[in-house]
Each structure stands twice: as C-alpha cells, then as structure tokens.
Specification:
24 strands; binds flavin-adenine dinucleotide; 6-stranded antiparallel beta sheet
C-alpha cells in the first residue's frame, strides 16, 4: 500500500526540518525521513561539535597564556580529552534531541526513520514503506570525500566525521587538506597538545582566499607550532613503526612525514549516489550535485533540492536560506532567488577569518574602479586590550556606486564584526550608510566607520 502525503522531505539537515514544519503549519500532511541522526551534519558532526571543541581548545590556550595577563597558574595545563569529548557530546545531544522532539511534536508532520530512495518521480521507498506526494524536497547533504591516495586501504585514517569519536590525544596528527575544516581541526588539536602537520597540495592554505589572507592565516598557525607543508605532490600513505608515513613529494626533501594519526580533510561529496535519482529522472552534474534553478527546483517538476546537495552553498546558513527561498516561493507568494544572496562565511580558527562578498582578486577582475580600506588589528583598541592583535580588516568598495563589494576580516571578533558589513550590503545601501554611525567603544566594530573614512584606490 502506498501512503499518500501532501509533501515528503528527505533528510533533516538545516533546511528540511524548518520546511517540514512550515508546510505542516500550512495544512500539508508532511512526511520527513532521516536515516541517521536528527539535525544532520551541522548539528552532529559539523558546526556545533567543531565549534564546541574549538571552545575547549581556546580554554587550553588561554590557560597556557595566562601569565601574559598577570594570572598565575600552578602546574602544567593538561587537557582531559574524554571530558572535552563528553562536553561536545552533551551540547550536540541537546540540539539533536531538540530537532527530533520539534518534528515529532508538530501536528501534520510524520517522522520516518530509514534510508529514502526514489522509486519514481513521485514515489519514495523507505525500507518496506512506499510513500507518495505531489511535492518532494531533497535535503540529504554530503559526506567527507575520501581521495584516491595510494596505500589508503592499508592504513587507518580519520575524517571530520570520525574525528567526533576521538577522546584521546593523538601524538602527531597529520591533516591532509589546508582548507576550512582541516585548519580548524589542526589548530584545535595543536592547542589540545598534539604535534600537528598540515599537508596541502596547492601552493597556499585556503587557496581561494586572497594571497595576503592565506599568508596571514599560515603565520598565525605556524606561530602556534603547527607545521605546514605546501605544494605536496605524489601523495601516498603507508604503515610505519611509529604510525603512518605520508609521502608528500617525489623530489623535495623531506619526502615523507611520519605521524601517529591521519586526518583527511579534502572536501565533501553530495549524498546523491544512493537516492535513486535516475529512477526519478532528476539531473545531477558531473560531481553528483543535483541541478537546480534559481528557485531550487530540480529538473523534475514537483521536486526541489535544498542545502549542500544542490552545490549552491556549503554552509548551514546557505541551507537555511534555501528553506526560506522555497517556503517564500511556494507558501508566501513572494519571489525569492538564490542569486539574490552573496557569499558570507567564516573560518573558525582563533582568531577567525570572516568574509563577505568579493575577494580582492575578484574585485580586480571585475574591472571596476575599486576603493579599499584597511586596518591592522594592532590598531584596534579591543584587540590590544585583549592582547590578540593578529590580523587585519579590509573592505572593498565600488568607486562609482559606493556600494561595498566585499570584506575580509581576520582577527579577534571578526566573525561578529563582519555583520556590520553584511547588513549594509544586504540593504543595498552605499558604504556611507555607516560612515557616520556611532559605534560602541571599545569594540572591533567601532573602527569600521573609521576604516570606511580612509578609502583609497586599490593599487
Ligand atoms: C567539520 C564541519 C564543520 C562545519 N562547520 C560549519 C560552520 O562552522 N558553519 C557553517 O555554516 N557550516 C559548517 N559546516 C557545513 C554544514 O555542516 C553544512 O553546510 C550544513 O549541515 C548543511 O547541510 P544540509 O542541510 O545540506 O544537510 P545535512 O546537514 O548534511 O543533513 C542531511 C541529512 O540527510 C540525511 N540523509 C542523507 N541521505 C538520506 C537518505 N537517502 N534518506 C534519509 N536521510 C538521508 C543525513 O543522514 C543527514 O541527517 C561544517 C561541516 C563540517 C563537516
């Protein structure tokens, strides 16, 4: 027997639950299907656990550096890894349970646990059950990529997901991948007390950032004793008496780095290969992402794809925004499009890097007249008071429209301060909208109007 619903949502990531509850509130009988843990990546193995671990790592860093603030600590600082993990698990459980009880407690929502697979464009199978609905929403997210590195089948390795089960201190963690996820783990484990080496295949860390940003982040990490090996080639791994040997070059010495543990952090793939998309006729691109239009509709009418699975964003906030776009178009008769949003994100190292809009490289390539404002964190009162003066703030402005094109803030409180810029950009206002604003002293944000008062042409 086929169970009939008004809507089916596959996956409880950052878009699915909110959408299911919204649809149910609009009177639609909605089924939502989850095969693992409620809340998906961000809640269970992504943002929430990593930022909880980053907080423990920062506590260790503050304790070790307490003397610089005139605080005496007797004895060595020791990190209790089982307790660090238990704290992370407690915080994750609150969120996971919150999502599950929210869904189960919402009238018109039917929660189904199991792996969903399309039988046709209107029918989804979950184990022995067959469901149908005129509207189906895919929010199945992604998982870590396991790259084809020689020898990988013969060694134990970790991914960002299995790192969540680690409750011990690796003696020497080798992190393959010098982008967001890899750098956050690298710094946190260094602060917990591990030796850490980052192995990156390209010539610099976070290689799609501007060179200046990559270099500054590298210096921050190296200053904490993290090893960085760039331009790694001929990658291969093998067992070693002391753990795992990672070949990083065929020519340059040292050709091999030996560590106790290996973390692969080289990107993510969408969860689309086991969804039966071919049976439904839903198109994917060469990398497996579901092809969607500007309103997130797939190639099959009546089926939408939201979140990481559509390749239009890789963040919690982009997935949630996908929900808002779909809900606005379907339920509020309000036209909203993906192309209306501009990129915003942060790298949660300490200090964090926050970015909005264009990089300097993109602004140059746009052949506009570009103005730039810049301020070193060493010239920000809040940063000096806190003794954390690394980094800088940079804002790029269109010299003709006076609108902000982009910003990169690297430094203490950067992830919060950037929202001054994000809000002005979203308002479609010129930078002068905050040029005369009175900001609170002493904060990082207080220097943003000052910085905008010191714009000069980008050389
Ligand atoms: C280590 C790490 C750190 C991160 N940190 C940040 C951060 O700080 N900020 C940020 O914005 N983003 C961060 N992200 C990214 C963020 O987690 C994702 O972008 C976000 O979770 C959006 O995912 P989603 O909504 O697409 O789906 P997901 O959260 O991936 O959820 C998809 C759900 O669908 C389920 N599912 C999959 N296939 C099926 C199926 N066939 N049947 C039933 N259920 C299925 C899965 O079990 C999962 O629960 C991080 C990611 C990682 C890995």
């Amino acid at each position: 027997m086929t169970e009939e619903f008004d809507a089916i949502v596959i996956g409880t990531g950052q878009a699915g639950p909110a959408l299911a509850v919204r649809l149910a509130g609009a009177g639609c009988e909605t089924a939502i299907i989850e095969r693992k843990r409620f809340g998906g990546t961000c809640v269970n193995v992504g943002c929430i656990p990593t930022k909880t671990l980053v907080a423990s790592a920062r506590a260790a860093w503050v304790a070790r550096n307490a003397a610089a603030y005139g605080v005496a600590m007797d004895g060595a600082v020791r990190v209790d890894m089982p307790r660090v993990k238990a704290r992370k698990d407690e915080i994750v459980a609150q969120s996971t349970n919150g999502v599950e009880s929210w869904l189960r407690g919402t009238p018109n929502v039917t929660v189904i646990e199991g792996h969903a697979r399309f039988e046709s464009s209107r029918v989804v199978r979950v184990d022995g059950r067959q469901l149908t609905a005129p509207r189906i929403f895919i929010n199945t997210g992604g998982r870590p990529t396991v790259p084809p590195i020689g020898g990988l089948a013969d060694v134990d390795y970790l991914t960002s997901t299995s790192m969540m089960d680690v409750d011990f201190l690796p003696e020497h963690l080798i992190v393959v991948g010098g982008s967001y996820i890899g750098l956050e783990f690298a710094q946190m484990y260094r602060r917990f007390g591990s030796r850490v080496t980052i192995v990156e295949m390209t010539p610099r860390l976070i290689s799609h950032e501007d060179e200046e940003v990559s270099q500054a982040v590298r210096e921050i990490l190296e200053a904490e004793g993290i090893g960085v090996r760039l331009n790694a080639r001929c990658l291969a791994v093998e067992r070693h008496a002391n753990g795992i040997a990672v070949r990083v070059s065929c020519e340059e010495e040292p050709r091999t780095i030996v560590g106790s543990h290996l973390l692969l952090a080289v990107g993510r793939v969408p969860n689309t290969d086991d969804l039966g998309l071919d049976r439904a006729g839903i198109a994917t691109d060469a990398r497996g992402f579901i092809v969607v239009d500007d309103e997130l509709a797939t190639s099959v009418p009546g089926v939408w794809a939201l979140g990481d699975v559509n390749g239009r964003g890789t963040f919690t906030h982009t997935s949630f925004n996908d929900y808002e776009i779909v809900a606005a178009n379907l339920l509020d008769n309000e036209a909203r499009r993906v192309s209306d949003r501009f990129p915003v994100y942060a790298l949660f190292t300490d200090p964090p890097l926050a970015r909005a809009g264009m990089t300097e490289r993109e602004a140059r390539a746009s052949s506009r007249l570009v103005l730039v404002g810049r301020r070193a964190m060493a010239r920000v009162g809040r940063a000096r008071e806190r003794g954390e003066t690394k980094g800088f703030m940079q804002v790029l402005v269109d010299g003709e429209t006076r609108k902000i094109l982009g910003a990169a803030f690297l430094g203490i409180e950067a992830d919060e301060a950037i929202h001054c810029i994000i809000d002005v950009m979203n308002a479609g206002a010129p930078y002068t909208a905050i040029r005369r604003a009175v900001h609170i002293h002493p904060t990082v944000s207080e220097l943003i109007p000052t910085l905008l008062g010191e714009l000069s042409p980008l050389q």
